[in-house]
Amino acid sequence: MASNHPENMPMFEKVLIANRGEIACRIARTCRQLGIRTVAVYSEADANAMHVTACDEAWLLGPAPARESYLNIERILEIARRSGAQAIHPGYGFLAENADFARACEQAGVVFIGPPAAAIEAMGSKSAAKAIMAEAGVPLVPGYHGEEQSVEFLAAVAEEIGYPVLLKASAGGGGKGMRRVDRPADFADALVSAKREAAAAFGDDRVLIEKYLLRPRHVEMQVFADRHGNVVHLFERDCSVQRRHQKVIEEAPAPGLAAATRQRMGAAAIAAARAIGYVGAGTVEFIMDAEGGFYFMEMNTRLQVEHPVTEMITGLDLVAWQLEVAAGRPLPLAQEELAMRGHAFEARIYAEDPQRDFLPAIGTIRSLHMPEPGPHVRIDTGVRSGDEISMHYDPMIAKLIVWGEDRDQALLRLRQALAACSIAGTTTNVEFLARVASHPAFAAGAVDTHFIDTYRDELLPPPQPATDAVLATAALHQLLAIQQQAAARARASNDPWSPWHDCTGFRLNGSSWHSLEFRDGERELIVIAHFRPGSFLLELPGGTVAASAHPQPDGRLRVVLEERQFDAWVQRDGQQLTIQLDGHRHQLLLADLDAATLLEDEPADGGLHAPMPGVVRAVLVEPGQKVEEGDALLVLEAMKMEYTIRAPSAGVIERIDFAVGDQVSEGAELLALAPLES
Length: 678
Fold this sequence. Notes:
This protein has 678 residues and is an alpha+beta fold.
């Protein structure tokens, strides 16, 4: 007869994951390890997404916009019922902290893998949360969290607290509705602005006021609670390095945190969880001043994005713990059984442009190379090469997590792992992350929430001119592409030994050299390549060097320049070449493209497609005209440069889809070329 002890409560057989991307894949991984079947849900935009294939089955939610898909409570519950899922894991974001969703799950007889709806509601309002924490004896920053919202009253409160003060939206987070005010004269305008933003973001314009702490740190405690009255903390994470009030790099444990402070902070976090009858995984966030005092900020009633660093230093699987607790089982370990080992960092890799205030950068990931996962390196991602970074969702590409015996070792591994990341097709923050990880102040653990602003000039320097090594790498990449194309044409022809397939100079009236033109910002650079057996002689701005290149199985390019050898990543996206070398990324534009290289990505459907967005400047053929291989067909202008689309083979022009002056998008079919009849 089965025991009714909590330890023997049955585990779920099937779980629906009400999320997408990296977190959905991460939850699916743990479920698979535990033998739990998983149900994915997806929008029309995510039909081929990684999280869909990571689960045992997948159901369509609706159109791409989140409100019509991942936020559709009724549809998610319908899928849970039809699929036979016994529980729903919300991940983070979307419905993870939605009390109505938690309550709807309960009413539908489906287990919500998260806290009770009442706990979510208690922490959903910053003002209400502060009142609860004050009652529980959790330290609070001096401030006002009441209902009176008149300008006169709040201005008087700010004077009493003492400037600078921070206005924060009572109902929200993510930096929205937040304003720093340094003097009384600016208070009224800042209040109006904060209220307007809060109303737009959260439908609630109420704000709270807090004393603004100079050079504060953001330190949070991971807590866990079960339905049997057990509550523990799993130590802290430092999340001080932020942009636009959003975390960039997290680490555990917090550098320089005294053991006594850790103990007090852990006790405060447990008290906070008990005060609201918490169940499951949660995070109590504190702000620390320069003297080591800490104050409650908010509680996130879900699994955090940065939970992997806690897993790395504790050796625990927090998603497995969530499943255990949701199934009614007690916490696997008591507080005295928990311990930290080593140090861990997490770097959030985003499709965003740090030079443009970290604005999201949508686009297709042409190639994605990440360091090899292992005991010390972990990659959590929800995208692959070829996936689109959509305007509809968060632009996260991956979380890079590393572990070391101590902070210095972990930091070295973080730098090495970032240097091994290579992503093409969209702008990313990888190089910015590498600069943060290499900054002396970060290495010293001297972090606070103003770190990026303090060192902005060093972390976001203007682009540096390409070195000869970068230019040589770009040239060698193009020369190899030209050779490969020539070889492919030879293999496909009736006369593979014809000298007309040779790219070493025969077609250049006997001269065994090739000219390559690049643009580096406003600089135009020319590399003259002289062909040698198995190598090249490159004329570079800094001099002439013997050079060769050898593609590696993992996609890297092994470059030899005189006596020096090094590995580089090179990706091409239209005219743009991205070269990753010595931990730095450089972008060059191709100003003079060889016909073979221009057409290297053309589909074999008879259509010739635009390799990048541009304007048609000349149409050199007409329908019905016969053309030979290499004949100029159309001139396209892009990025202030012209280049010619040429015939990849002999044929007849069937149709032309654009006229002079037309704007074309990347991938647009320009004209159709039919093969010659034999």
